[in-house]
């Protein structure tokens, strides 16, 4: 499939009109000879038809999520409506940096076997920015089982559309709360062929101060347990197993489920005694520090749990 044809960019959105317009302005500034089609998918909110329009070089289409409510269903609505040879993702609060699309299409053209190409990111949190890049230009499944590699952010994803729809498959809409749906999609893509990576920050990812409610932490725990059940490959990668178990322990601690947090922290240490998330979970479960404060400290350094 040609990399010079149209690129379709799927932008799920919900109640963030100002950030959305900034994201769209950055997409308009990209240059691609085949033209850019942007599919803005409104999830659980009324579509803004005023955003639609454009020309052969850059056109915006406005859709409502007609699948499962949530991020996964919104992404799939856009993927299935896309007319481009290539499909990209961009979250409504992120901004593509100049040259992003040109660099990725060139990478796909140079590597006909690649199905997905990602880039590094620039994390913005409050008034701090941190560049996060990965030196490896090809990322196999084993690397993604060991580490989430958050530099491979969904707003950097660019797929060959036929590989995504007919091979890798759509975003899984059964994941609780659509949490980590991007990571699961990466795992599926890497099962087929290594993910191509450009070690340059080409997307500004905006992290926001937020407080998760108990129900959200429970959803996160359920989604991570879903991942462990769905991917038996984790059983052979202690470091990856410990990472997910530690995240579950932290989520349970943040939700106030002290006994579950202690149980998952113990399971984490059994898999990898040096996994720091186990000890962060214990600190939260014991009341030494609150989960929101820990997240703020990590986010200022461009990192998360």
Topology of helices and strands:
Blueprint: E1 7-13, H1 17-28, E2 36-42, E3 53-54, E4 58-64, H2 71-81, E5 86-89, E6 95-96, H3 100-110, E7 116-125, E8 128-132, E9 138-139, H4 141-146, E10 158-160, H5 161-168, H6 181-192, E11 195-207, H7 214-230, H8 238-254, H9 258-271, H10 276-285, H11 291-300
Parallel strand pairs: 1-2, 1-5, 2-4, 7-11
Antiparallel strand pairs: 3-4, 5-10, 6-11, 7-8, 7-10, 9-11
Helix pairs in contact: 7-8, 8-9, 8-10, 9-10
Summarize the structure in words.
There is one protein chain. The longest helix is centred in the last third of the chain and has 17 residues. Strands 1, 2, 3, 4, 5, 6, 7, 8, 9, 10 and 11 form an 11-stranded mixed β-sheet that branches. This protein is of the alpha/beta class. The chain contains 11 helices and 11 strands. It has 2 domains: 201 residues, Alpha-Beta Complex (Spore Coat Polysaccharide Biosynthesis Protein SpsA, Chain A), CATH 3.90.550.10; 87 residues, no CATH class.
